Amino acid sequence: MLVLVVDSSTPAVTAALVEIQPDRLVLRAERCVVDARAHGELLAPQVESVLAEAGARSTDLGAVVAGVGPGPFTGLRVGLVTAVTMGQTLAIPTYGVCSLDALGHAAAATGQRILVASDARRREIYWAVYGDAGKRITEPDVAAPAVVAGQAAGLGITVAVGEGAHRYADILGLPLRAELLYPPAYALAELAAERIRAGDPGESLTPLYLRRPDAVAASIRKPVLP
């Protein structure tokens, strides 16, 4: 089955086409561009590009997998709206995966506890801790790096991954794995593969914001005249 994977929870705008076979996954095509201000402009052309590279059409898709965050409001909703629209238009199921889980899954190593952190702006990070086989140990949260460093001190963490971990490495004080900055498309697909193979019903793609958007509509109208 051909599956479209999209993620816009970080500055990396990702689209990929993955073939889910009974015993393995095959990455057929992938596009990833890092640009925190161009999610809306980049994602749709990337989807068209991966389909063209694989010689496929949108009607060949059997499912859509989307990273549901956590991530900043504006960027994250681009990927989710794209996934929901394609799922409804093509009448195919959609499956959500926590974007931090994808990094934790990709970084998993026996005997290690891993801090996954993405940049949340406002001098904060989205973060969670993962153990063997990429199993999540703490729930996703958002906090200042110094707060995370204090909470992580007693969790036996041995390494950190993600853009947020690199940006605030001096505060977190943990060894880094440089090759894992953003959620890999193949990891997102792997975390949804069991549900897809089993033919589980599609899911509502609920964004994991963890905090209110930067722009909030005023609740009280101010008078024009004094």
Automatic annotation (TrEMBL):
Domain Gcp-like: 36-149
UniProt superkingdom: Bacteria
Pfam families: TsaD (PF00814)
Gene3D superfamilies: 3.30.420.40
GO CC annotation: cytosol
GO BP term (any one): tRNA threonylcarbamoyladenosine modification
This protein's name: tRNA threonylcarbamoyl adenosine modification protein YeaZ
